Amino acid sequence: MTLHLDDAAVRRLLRLETLIPAMRQALIDLSAGRVVQPLRSVMDVPPAQGLLFLKPALTGDALAAKLITLFPGNAALGLPTLLATIVLMDPRTGQTIAVMDGTWITALRTAAVSAVGVDALAPHGPKVVAMLGSGTLARTHAQAFRAVRPISQIRVWSRDPANVARCAAEIDAVPAMTAEAAVRGADIVCTVTNASEPILEGAWLKPGALVTAIGAPRPTWRELDDAAMRNPVVVDSREAALQESGDVILSGAPLHAELGEILSGTRPPPPAGTTVVFKALGQAVEDAVAARLVYQAAKN
C-alpha cells in the first residue's frame, strides 16, 4: 500500500539531528557523481505571479520527484510561500511507496544544508547571525544554525516589520530596522528572501563572514550585489548554479568549489579568514534523501 503522510506526520517524523548528517552525505554523493539528477523544470504560473518546479532524483535506495510551488503572495494570506508534495518510489520497480507533504521537508532540509555549509566553512566559536528574511526559512535556519554553532545573537530584517517582530519573538532574535544594521559585524549572514533585486551589499560584510545565500532561484533574480559575489563562491551544484542562479550568472562570479567536494576533501575550502558565499539552490537529491528518512521513520 502507498503511504500517505500529511504535514503534521512529516513534522513529527523528520528530525534535524538525523537530517543534517544525511544532507552532508547527499552533497558528497552529488559531487562524486553517485546521483542521477536532471536540472529542475520550472513553469510560470501567471495568475499568481508564481512558479511551479519539478525536481526528480535517484540516489541509493531513494527515488523521488518533488512538485514545488513558489507563490510570493501567499504571505499575505497566512500561507507558506513555498508549498510542496513529494512522491517516493521503489527504485527497483518504480512503484509509488509514499506520497507526502513536502513543505516541511523543503523548509527543514534547506536549513540543514545551510548548517552543513556553516559547519564546513565557518570557524568554531560563538556567532552573530544576520537573517535577511522573516518567513518559515528564517525560523528553520535559526534552529539548524544553533545545532552546529553556539549562536550569541540573531538579528532579523525583512521588508515587513510585522513579520520581523513575529519571527524575532519566535526564534529569540533582535529585530533590525534595516538590512545593513542586521549585517554589519555579523559572522554569518543568511539570505532567505523572495527578492529579485539585491538586498545584501558586499560593503556591509565583516571580513571573514560567511554568507549562506538561499533565495533568488531564477537566472534573472538576485539577493547579493556584485561586491558580495566577488568573494569566493561555494555552491551546492556547479551545474545548477551556472544555469539557475542569477547571483552567479549576472555577476559573472567564478565558482571556487561545490560544498560536496570540500566535504570529501577533493577540493580545498577557501583560505581561513576569507569572506565566503555559499550559494545553495536546493537539490532534488536532498528531497529524495529526506523523504526516505521520513518513510523509514513512519515504517519503524
Structure report:
- The chain has 2 domains: 3-105 and 285-299, ornithine cyclodeaminase, domain 1 (2-Layer Sandwich), CATH 3.30.1780; 114-283, 3-Layer(aba) Sandwich (Rossmann fold).
- The protein is globular.
- The protein has an 8-stranded parallel sheet with strand order 9-8-7-10-11-14-12-13.
- With 300 residues, the chain is of the alpha/beta class.
- Helices cover 37% and strands 25% of the residues.
- The chain has helices spanning 7-13, 16-31, 103-121, 136-148, 161-171, 179-183, 226-229, 238-244, 246-251, 259-264, 284-299; strands spanning 3-5, 41-45, 50-59, 62-70, 82-89, 96-101, 127-132, 151-157, 174-175, 188-191, 210-213, 233-235, 255-258, 276-279.
- The mean pLDDT is 96.
- α2 (16-31) crosses α11, α3 (103-121) packs across α4 and α3 (103-121) packs across α11.
What is the topology?
Blueprint: E1 3-5, H1 7-13, H2 16-31, E2 41-45, E3 50-59, E4 62-70, E5 82-89, E6 96-101, H3 103-121, E7 127-132, H4 136-148, E8 151-157, H5 161-171, E9 174-175, H6 179-183, E10 188-191, E11 210-213, H7 226-229, E12 233-235, H8 238-244, H9 246-251, E13 255-258, H10 259-264, E14 276-279, H11 284-299
Parallel strand pairs: 1-6, 7-8, 7-10, 8-9, 10-11, 11-14, 12-13, 12-14
Antiparallel strand pairs: 2-3, 3-4, 4-5, 5-6
